[in-house]
Structure formats: structure tokens, C-alpha cells
Amino acid sequence: MTLLAVERIKLFTTRSPWWSGAIAIALMAAFAGLVAANAPADELTMANTQFGATFGLVVVMVLAALAITTEYRFGTIRATFQAVPNRTSALLAKTGVVAAVAFVIAEIGAFLAWGLANVIKPEANLALNSMADWRNVAGAGLIFALAAVVAVALGTLVRHSAGAIAIVLVYSQVAEPLISQLPSVGPDIYRWLPFNMAQKFLTGDPEVAPQFADGGPPSAALSPWWALAYFAAFAGVLLTIAVATANKRDA
Amino acid sequence: MIEAVGLTKRYGKTLAVDDLSFNVQSGRVTGFLGPNGAGKSTTMRMVLGLDNPTGGSVTIDGRRYRELHDPLRTVGALLDAKWVHPNRSARAHLRWLAKSNKLPDSRVDEVLELVGLTSVANKRAGGFSLGMSQRLGIAAALLGDPQVLLFDEPVNGLDPEGIVWIRKFMHRLADEGRTVFVSSHLLSEMALTAQELIVIGRGKLIAQCSTEEFVAQATESTVKVRSPQLPVLRNALLHAGVRISDEGEGLVVSGMDSAEIGELAAQHGATLHELSPQRGSLEEAFMQLTGESVEYHTDLEQTAVAEAAELISTGK
Predict the structure, then answer these.
(1) What ipTM was reported for this prediction?
(2) Which domain holds residue A239?
């Protein structure tokens, strides 16, 4: 508990988390507004209102990676390990706080986006009736939190802001879709890639992305909740490697 | 007490710390002396459990740093004053540190007061001068009111006022009965601050003794002699088996004190124009001991000699 409070103080006594949080929420809401204003009411789906989540997620992952890489950049990681020699606890506390912040940002952003779309197009069918609808909106919190864990883990391993951010963004936004374009084996691999799994949890299968109907990249191999578990396991493995590495390395 | 046994740290092919054993006595100021690159900072990082030793171990009161519970209450350290997030205020920096070792927030204000940073406590640390950063670092080291304090080159880059402040502060900490382990590459600074010295060069222990002993042992005392009957005196001295070297119009004698030289001169009927004991400076003593272990020798001297030789040979 003490260590969570320590990491909370650290995170909120610098400005970048506040800015990143505000930008992520604004992006999610803005895209919902844009989509709702332009789409006909009968075509506006729940997934459409959450279109901005992709961009919000990018900002949150940058926030998460920076939370640890700035510690290496400014040497405060040494001050941290000096005060808390148990590096595993120190890093897990940081990961926990960053993940919780990511969760909160996502929930605010997702519900703001959903609310805004409802206000702009009250006649559209945007009621939260099914589990799929809830997953699509409230589920963002879980995905953002786990993605934040991935970013913190990579930041711990790489230790440089630019490097960590590049890896996180290029992998999640560019590499995975590119892999799906590989001839023959591409789609089969893509079905098992973690960020595709995360997307599967959010948007599910049947009502998913009509733009892919013409043979676009395939959706993930598992059912939504298993896809979430898969993504969580991916984050867990990365975090374990990162913590083990930090314990062995000189600070 | 800080005790290092066979402490070794290897980075790839370089041996930064080489089988180093020493102990830092409780309740005294111990200077950790060595030229730049001798392995002082690496050793201090190993004391704090930041770097893992390749071999050997170092303990504080019998325990490794990573086994300490709320370590800031046992050991305070200032290794680098810039280990602060530039956008975080001085108070916020100390607040998270205090929290991590379950120290009350009131302690933060106390240490800020102690180092005289109360008026800038809410300013961002990135805007601090080196002297102010150093004070913030000392405030952080003192947070847990520890009995053991480590400082790495605390006066480096400070202005004279800052140096005096730090020096006084160290004395005060020692007067309070704390163990202070402070590194420096300046012997003159250490002679003013430290009672004990641990001297290293190229990662190896050169000496561990009291500052007085070190200075006495290291400064080879010599006597300068000038005389119109220099050749007579030289022969007599050589006969007595002491080392002599020419210096201008006189001789520099080592291994015999001025009284003995005077008597020798009288026996041989040599008039003395000068008979003066020379005491080497602290810096010379230090250079003498660590000279061979300095890691980065300049080849400036050799270059200069070579150039001079070339000029002479070309007849310019």
C-alpha cells in the first residue's frame, strides 16, 4: 500500500500524466462526436462511437512507457531502488498505479464518447443492452490497463523514452497489421497476435467492423473473454521478464 | 560499520573495482580517496545495492543493503545531485522518498529547513543551481535520520561558498556521532574533512589509515643543501649512503635529516649556504602514491619532448 502511494505521488507530481490523460480523453470524445455528427442515425453503431479508443490507447501507452523511462532518464530509478531495495515490489507498484490510471482514463473517455454520441444522435440505437455493448464501452478500461502494463514492461526493458515509445507504437499500430498482409501465413499468425486479441475483446466477432467484410484481416482466434485472458497473459509475461531483468541489472 | 570484503566489479574487459577490502569505522568521517576513474562511485553504488558486485560483498552493520528494512532510516546517501525529476518540486521529491520509508511528511519540512531550501521548496528542481541541487540531495540523505551517510564527490563543481557549507555540514554530522563516508579526488579537501582515509587507485586498495599517518607516510621529507664546496659534500653524502639529486646550485637529500647533514658538513669542513627541510605537499603525496595507478595518463609531456628534440635537430 505504501509503495502504491509512493508511485501515485511520483506520477501526479509531474505534468505529463495530466496532459496525456486529458489528450486521450479528448481524442476519444472528439472522434465519437465526429462520427455521430456525420453518420446517419440508423448506421451509427456502438463500435463507431468508440472509434477514438485506438488513438486514446496510443496516448495512454506513451504515458505508461514514459512513467518508467523518465525514471531512467533522470536517474530517479536509482533513488527509488535506494529507498526501496526490493525492486520487484517497486516496479509492480508502479505498474499497478499506471494501469489504474489507464483504466480510469479509458472509462472516462469511453463513457464520454458514448454519451456524446447519444446527445448528438438521440435517435440512434445506442442503448447498452447486451454484454457485447458493455464490453465495447466499459471494456476499454481493461484493455487500456493491460496495454499500460505492456508499455511499462517494455519501458523497463528498453530504458530509453524514444526507443520504448517507438517499439510500443510501431508494434501495436504498424507491425501487427503488416503481419496480417504477409502472403499465406500472415492471416493465420495475425489471428494470434495480442493487440488483435485486445481488439477482439472490445468489438467481438459478429457485429465487428463491417469494413473488413471484403476479406480484410481476420479477427482473433479466441472468443472475446479468452482473447482478454490471452492479452492479459501477454502483458504478464512481458512484465515478468522486465522485472526479472531489472533485478539482475545494475540500476 | 561498512565492511567490504574482496569487492570486485567487472564491466566487460575493464576491472573497475579489483578485490577491494576495507572497513569504515562507526562515528568517524572516512575519506574515500582516489583519482578520477579509480572506482569510487562504482564502489559506492555497490554499497547501496544499486550495482551488483561481480565478486565479494559489502555489508552495513553486517547486513547487505538490499536486506535492510526501510533503508533510508539506516543509510542516507548522495551519489548524484541530479537524480531528481526536473519538473518535480523539491518538496514533492522529498515527499515520495519519505513516504517510501514510512517517514512523516513533517520530516520533509524539517530537512528542507536544515539545508536552507524552505523558501524554494515548491519550485521545480530542474531550475536549481548545482549548489541547491546538492543541498536537496543532502536533505534526501538526511530524511530518515540515518546513522550512516555516504557522499560521492559532494564538493565537485561547487563555488567556494558551497564548498565551505558542505565542509561545515560534514563536521556537524560527524560531531553528532554519525558515520560519514565521503569520496573525493582531492586530498587537500579530505585532509580538512576526514579523520580516516581509504585510498584506492585503479580499483585497488592503496592504503587505509588515519589521515595524519597517510600524510606523514606519503610525504617523503627531503633536505635542500647549498654549499660552495658542493663536490666535497656530495662525496661525503654518497659515502654515507643517502639518496641525492641535483637541483640548480644545490642538492636535495633524502634519507637524512638536516641535523645529520649539518654535522657531516662540519666534519668535512664544508660551508653551508642553505640547509632547509622540504616538506612535500599533500597533493604531491597523493600523486606519489596513486601516480602509477592513474587510469588516463596524458602523453602531452612526451609529445612536448619529441617536438623539442625535432626542433633542435632541424637547427631552428
Answers:
(1) 0.86
(2) 2-248
